[in-house]
Amino acid sequence: MSAPVLPVQQAGALERAVAALQAGHLVVIPTDTVYGIAARPQTLDRLEAQVYGSRERAPWPALPLLLHSARYMPLLARSNAAAELLAHHFWPGAVTLILPTAPDFPLGSLDITTVALRVPHYPPLHPLLAALEGYVIVGRAARSGYPSCITAQEAQEQLGEDVALILDGGPSPLGVTSTIVDCIEVPPRIVQRGVIPDQKILDVLRLGDRESGV
Fold it and tell me: How far is CA 106 from CA 33, 65, 74, 135, 136, in A?
């Protein structure tokens, strides 16, 4: 049976999504970039194996997490000057930052050493993130080899049999994946081109260099 589709603004929809996630199910959610599949730590293996077919591939290079706000970054990651600068300029927004996990990483049982953090510019999603302790694992809502979903209907066609619920926020406002920057490397390196042009990222990093006297 295909998962039900609920408008994200419908009364009770977010509460149903939170309850499903807390019960160990997968939920498709809208974001400002493309649709994503949200999961709690206990369902990470299912997210990888059932949706991405990853029994035949390496584990996550960096655990993808959507945050309610930038104040959760120190809880999850060991930040640095470049990451702080990019977060200040682009969060909330379509830039994802790769960083090492924090010393007291709350999801330490997952044996993860790096995280990919982003604060989405999508207010309808904020109550869900707040209800889930400020962050949630979110992978791209698409099967391996398929394009990212930018509508709930596309997500239902690809993933309706694998998730418990789909939140419909209409067409994704940006319709393009986020720009991913590896902030572990020095200097930081853009590892995935996305909606934020490379040059804007580089300009902000150079601004930081000038301000620090480098």
Answer: 26, 12, 11, 11, 12
Average pLDDT over residues 157-182: 96
Cβ–Cβ < 8 Å for 136, 22: no
pLDDT digit string, tens, across residues 3-18: 999 999 999 999 999 9
Contact (Cβ atoms closer than 8 angstroms) between residue 21 and residue 38: yes
> In angstroms, rounded to a whole number, what is the distance separating the alpha carbons of residues 93 and 95?
6
Q: Which helix (H) or strand (E) element contains residue 45?
A: helix 44-46
Predicted TM-score (pTM) above 0.85: yes
**CA 108 to CA 166: how far, in whole Å?**
28
DSSP, residue by residue, 52-74? T-GGGSPPPSSEEEEESSGGGHH
State the amino acid at position 44 in one-letter form. L
Domains, the chain: 5-212 (3.90.870.10)
Look up residue 212 and give its amino acid: S
Q: How many CB atoms lie within 10 A of CB 144?
A: 11
CA atoms within 13 A on the CB side of 200: 13
Most distant CA pair in the chain: distance in Å? 60
**63-67, strands of its sheet edge to edge:** 5-7, 165-168, 27-29, 36-39, 135-140, 63-67, 114-118, 95-100, 179-182, 189-192
What letter represents residue 136's amino acid? V
